[in-house]
């Protein structure tokens, strides 16, 4: 019976000590200086650019004669 009480006592004391140490560690923690800041969103998209049409020759088909 003494062994069971000593194991139970050690578990309780260990849990209390762990809780106290964990609480002290959380209190001392300071916020980091290098906090990540999200980048600015990209600018809104512009209207699509219409490319210049290709140059049109005077005649679309000159045949094989090359006039």
Q: What do these coordinates show?
A:
- The mean pLDDT is 81.
- This protein starts with a helix and ends in a 39-residue tail after the last helix.
- It is built from 1 helix and no strands.
- Helices cover 40% and strands 0% of the residues.
- The radius of gyration is 40 Å and the shape is rod-shaped.
- It has one helix at residues 2-28.
- It is an all-alpha fold and 67 residues long.
- The longest helix is centred in the first third of the chain and has 27 residues, at 2-28.
Architecture blueprint of SSEs:
Layout: H1 2-28
Summarize the entry for a quick read.
It contains one helix and no strands. It has 67 residues and is mainly alpha-helical.
Query: What is the radius of gyration computed over CA atoms, rounded to a whole number of angstroms?
Result: 40 Å
Shape: rod-shaped
- Strand-pairing-aware structural class: mainly alpha
Helix-residue proportion: 40-55%
Poorly predicted runs are: none
In round numbers, the mean pLDDT is: 81
Intertermini distance = 118 Å
Instruction: Determine the number of helices (DSSP H or I, runs of at least 4 residues).
Output: 1
Tally the beta strands. 0
The H-and-E topology, N to C, reads as H
Strand content: under 5%
Name a few traits of the molecule.
67 residues, mainly alpha, 0% strand, rod-shaped
């Amino acid at each position: 019976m003494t062994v069971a009480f000593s194991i139970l006592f050690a578990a309780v004391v260990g849990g209390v000590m762990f809780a106290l140490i964990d609480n002290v560690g959380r209190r001392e923690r300071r916020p980091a200086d290098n906090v990540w800041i999200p980048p600015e969103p990209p600018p809104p998209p512009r209207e699509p650019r219409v490319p210049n049409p290709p140059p049109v020759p005077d005649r679309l088909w000159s045949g094989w004669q090359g006039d």
